[in-house]
Automatic annotation (TrEMBL):
Record field: transmembrane: none
Protein name: N-acetylglucosaminyl deacetylase, LmbE family
Any one GO molecular function term: hydrolase activity, acting on carbon-nitrogen (but not peptide) bonds, in linear amides
PANTHER family: N-ACETYL-ALPHA-D-GLUCOSAMINYL L-MALATE DEACETYLASE 1 (PTHR12993:SF30), N-ACETYLGLUCOSAMINYL-PHOSPHATIDYLINOSITOL DE-N-ACETYLASE-RELATED (PTHR12993)
Pfam families named in the record: PIG-L
Keywords: Zinc
Highest taxon listed in the record's lineage: Bacteria
GO biological process annotation, one example: glycoside metabolic process
Gene3D superfamilies in the record: LmbE-like
UniProt xrefs under InterPro entries: GlcNAc_PI_deacetylase-related, LmbE-like_dom_sf
Keyword Mitochondrion applies: no
Length: 237
């Protein structure tokens, strides 16, 4: 299968579903990561062009851990909107990668860019399937199974699906280590090490489903009914 995860900023995908992506990759599935903004607000000071370049390099190093295909759409950080232009740009990503499974941000997450990314991803599906909407690649033949990723700090909607990442948590952390600029910034501004942060979240989600570590997801409710659950890696019996 082709498995695509979408984040508003470099490192969003790694925080919320890298362990699950690693499980897919270990069993031979192709993995893609799409980052919608350039992350150029992700520093306490400096030139935005240079910050965006750093974050793009970090995103590539992280994707290389999984040999994942990386799509960088380059929208300005903090100004991501569900516009015709962003829908068409993401529809082309869908057509180029042709995912069977699509992980997208939760529509109720804390950051406006996260919420916009969720809307863009979901609202581009029919566009990507329409032969009359022209992009560089041909229309997709079928829609992927869609999952909402978890929210930061587990705030908000209750998940309905869990994936055991006990054996891939280290890979998730390796991917996050590639985003060094962000961890340095968070340590200075918030006193937070986000490696520690994601381990705590993974342990709490693991506690809920009886594993050492887990990531959690929800399935969007829309017509036609999304029979996505069977495509997730299974929990231990």
């Amino acid at each position: 299968m082709n498995v695509l995860a979408v984040g508003a900023h470099p490192d969003d995908v790694e925080i919320l579903c890298a362990g699950t992506l690693a499980r897919y990759r270990r069993t031979g599935h192709a993995v893609g990561i799409c980052v919608l903004t350039n992350g150029d607000l992700g520093a306490p000071d400096g030139e935005k062009v240079e910050i965006a370049a750093v974050r793009a390099r970090e995103a590539r190093r992280s994707a290389d851990v999984l040999d994942a295909r990386l799509f960088l759409l380059g929208e300005p950080d903090g100004f991501l909107f569900d516009s015709p232009e962003t829908r068409i740009a993401f529809a082309e990503v869908l057509r180029a990668f042709r995912p069977d499974i699509l992980f997208i941000p939760d529509p109720h997450d804390y950051h406006p860019d996260h919420r916009a990314a969720s809307a863009i991803a979901l609202n581009s599906l029919q566009l990507a399937a329409s032969p009359l909407q022209r992009t560089e690649s041909a229309a997709i033949e079928s829609l992927p199974a869609v999952f909402y990723m978890d929210t930061l700090a587990l705030v908000g909607a209750t998940p309905r699906r869990w994936v055991d990442i006990s054996e891939t948590l280290d890979t998730k952390l390796d991917m996050l280590r590639a985003h060094r600029s962000q961890n340095d910034w968070l340590r200075c501004t918030d006193g937070t090490d986000y490696l520690d942060y994601v381990v705590k979240q993974a342990r709490l989600r693991g506690l809920q489903c009886g594993t050492a570590a887990a990531e959690a997801f929800r399935v969007p409710e829309y017509f036609p009914i999304n029979h996505a659950a069977s495509t997730l890696p299974e929990l231990p019996a």
